[in-house]
Amino acid sequence: MNTNPTRQRAWQTPVSLQGTKSGIYCKRLMTEKYACFVWRESKWARQSMTLDNYKSAQHIIAQPAPEWQPYFLPTLDAIGVTIKPHIEISGLGAIDRVIAQTELVLTASEGCSRIFSPDIISIPAPFECEFPFYMTWGKRTHSSQAHQWFRNQITETARELK
Q1: Is 87 strand, coil or helix?
Q2: Is the pTM for the entire model greater than 0.70?
Q3: Of 37, 78, 34, which Cα lies nearest the Cα of 60?
């Protein structure tokens, strides 16, 4: 897993590309805090997740691309916490089945609770970190009425999710 903070920050700042010269536009839609997701019967569902507990837990990390890393890893590095993933997955599609009946801990944006089964519960992460959501689009579709309408729909949906 890549833990290079320079690469992380470069990927994290698409806003620097926006504007008419680059032809790339970007809008920050919302921000969510990170939370921990665990099986509802796990020991983590019954006890408080402290930073020491978090360090010793078995973690599952979602890493959708080889060079991408979760936003929370640099935050952990900054407070001197290192975690070693027990399992790495490329997406969250089957996470309910992977976490069920285990002691695994998934750290993801708190909004994931909207898509997980009731068997997977959210508990507060023992650190503060936010996950920003952006919408980006190119110059070719910037003035298109259909695309403007669609971007407005996405913006409204994000506003309702806050």
Answers
A1: strand
A2: yes
A3: 37
